[in-house]
Amino acid sequence: MVDQPLRSNWLLDPDVHFVNHGSFGACPRPVLDHQQRLRDQLEREPVAFMERELPVHLEDVRAVLGGFLGADPKDLAFVNNATSGVNAVLRSLPFGPQSEIVVTNHAYGACRQALEFVAARSEAQIKLVSIPLTATSDQMLEAVVAAVTDRTELVLIDHVASPTAVIFPVEELVAELNRRDIDTLVDGAHAPGMVRLRLEELGAAYYTGNCHKWMCAPKGAAFLYVRPDRHSSVYPTVISHGYQRANSGESGLHELFDWVGTDDPTALLSVGVAIETIASYHPGGWPGVMKANRELAAAGAALVAEALGTTERTPPAASGSMVAVGLPPGSRDGARWDPLQDRLLFEHGVEVPIVAWPRAPHRLVRISAHLYNDLDDYRALAAALQSLL
Q1: Domains 4-28+284-388 and 32-274 share a fold
Q2: Which CATH architecture has domain 4-28+284-388?
Q3: Nearest 5°: phi and psi at 219?
Q4: For residue range 85-103, what is the model confidence (pLDDT) as tens digits?
């Protein structure tokens, strides 16, 4: 069982088995308290906070985050979420009719939509690589590399795929694509806090990730890493006051992204406290947190798979703090929200996503694990699925 004082640090409904951390995260009370203190400070003197103090605060947070991610702070820009980071890169690059962009069928739906938008506007070609749920890392690597051609200008790849929870071999993929002079945009929405990151060593041209998921920062905290040789090629989706200064100074990335209009910056300014708080919840610090979450997700997936009598799931070697397990086929109507998800919550008190993949009627149940979860959450899910299916 989860240590109850630890579980009480989250505001989660005690009557709900919440095994859907992957969708929006969940922020602990101490981090939310810190954010509220920052909001109070902001409202006492908004001009002083936003114009005089904020630039210094952002640099402080960038230094802490850079240490956590293995990145030079000068290569980090702040965005509201990973989808914004993906959009910033895709909408900055000069694609044309001869351009080819490679993406897999594991990509997050919003990022696929951004890719479709950019491709339609520029007449670029999208090449979709279909990779089975049970593929090995070597098979993933071979499938992506086999898809690139001399026209490929960018590969959009997930680090941890949202619909399937598959951890892609990004180190090997980026290295191989770099050897072929092909840039990689890594959608790392789920990776920070789930897997160890060393972005400078990784060498991807672009990498974006959320701090509000596994790092447990408040919603609206995310980053975009841009390799130094690509700084001049990326712009935020909103051009604001920093545009002229960026074109004349050395810190163009920060000038462009740090101020894109009035917003509440307190989520970003709470990232350091989130890193410190979650680390304090496990005697092994962050490595211990990641290991505990990975092991609990695996145990939970085993319970669910056994209850369903299936072996279809995210491969253990490619699993982290989320695991997807195959379900019997559902509706073919392409509804955005599977009715099973509502029945699990309202009839059995279990919050978990049901994902249509690779397309309806095929579907998966994607479970998550964080420090507030225990095996009882997955037992409840397994029993509910047995009852409903």
Answers
A1: no
A2: Alpha-Beta Complex (3.90)
A3: -60, 140
A4: 999 999 999 999 999 999 9
